[in-house]
# Entry
Amino acid sequence: MTDNSTDHYSKFLLIWFGQFISIIGSGLTIFSLGVYVYQQTGTASSYVFILMCAFLPPFLLKPYGGILADRHDRRLMMVIGDSGSTLGLLFIFIMMLKGNIELWQIYLGIAISSTFSAFQEPAYKALITDLLPENQYAKASGLVQLASSAQYLISPFLAGILLTIMDIKFVFLIDVATFLIASSIVIWIRNISGITQITKPEQNNMADLKEGIQEFSKNRGVVNLVITTMFVLFFVGLLQSLIIPMLLNLTTVKAAGITQSICASGILIGSLFIGVFGNKNKYVKTLSISLFISGIFFANLGFSTNIAYVTLAGFLFFATLPFINTSIEVLIRKNIDNSKQGRVWSIISMVTYLGSIIAFAVAGFLADKIFNPLLEPEGLLSETAGSIIGVGESRGIALMFIISGLMISIIALLIWKNKKIKELENIEGQGSELSQNKYYIEM
# Structure
């Protein structure tokens, strides 16, 4: 490694460290606000709407964020994104200091913060290309993915502990501090490196989008796989939306945070297994089997009120996700023209995560108005399903998890029987290598 490349990699590591702690800070806020709102209202709908405010703006603005990242200094875009995100947090902090903060003020603050993050994330990921030579892309991409996972692996654990020793307002200040640290690092690197000149692309954005849609839609197997993934993400979105409300009715805030972190650590174990032993063929078979097993573990989240049992089921569920994600990505990459993959991946990302957005939109209503009432002491299913999974608060959510897990296992069987998806495995050579940083199914 030359001195110049070493210098660039050192700069990347500094930026990565800033983003790493910033992502942890964001996770602290999301977890803490979710707990606060649920404890204040007692409704899953109020909690889930926080997730909507956190994820919907980036989902809608992602294409525009990518365009801006290609046309402007990416380090400047990161500074604007990180600094702007503090505005929403400070708004919530000030409203809490004034007392009697209302739900709409919390939602507005989260939406403001997440809107700025939509412009920061594409610039951050694209910055790898600016700073590093091609032979360091894979290593850098792995670090970026590790940092992204910190929101689920580290933040719930820390937040659960912090909320037992300090007021939630101080958690916001920690998050603001992490944003400012991340921004300061990028500003310093930008000052010592100079401004990166970005050549504006001459292509028509709408024409590129149309071409990407055509490339995506011409392969029925890819379309079938992506639509199937969208349905899987709908059910996983229900888990993401409702796991904390269910845990808070089973245990303490601290234990709920620790449980979520332990569950998410299953991703690391699955990824390590793939890294050591590999997964180089029979991707449809691997996808079908791992998805079927994940559905079984998902369903087991709802069968017991024992927190150790729930934690084990969650850990095993997350351990299957790397096998699912890797199989999906390889099958798609092998069947998409390499020169058009950038446009196609943005479309695929939008389509698949539509499942999560729909789940966020309906999860609260399904839990509060339909499933939880069914398993109240005098509920319609209290003497049938209730005799198996229990009766009381959040047991309706447990029933939703059981149904969702079984549906995922059924989807796995449908994938195995889908001829168009099986044909994807027989295509060789036109796609690109595995990028190691795309994760479709996650918390």
In short: Residues 431-439 have pLDDT under 50 and may be disordered.
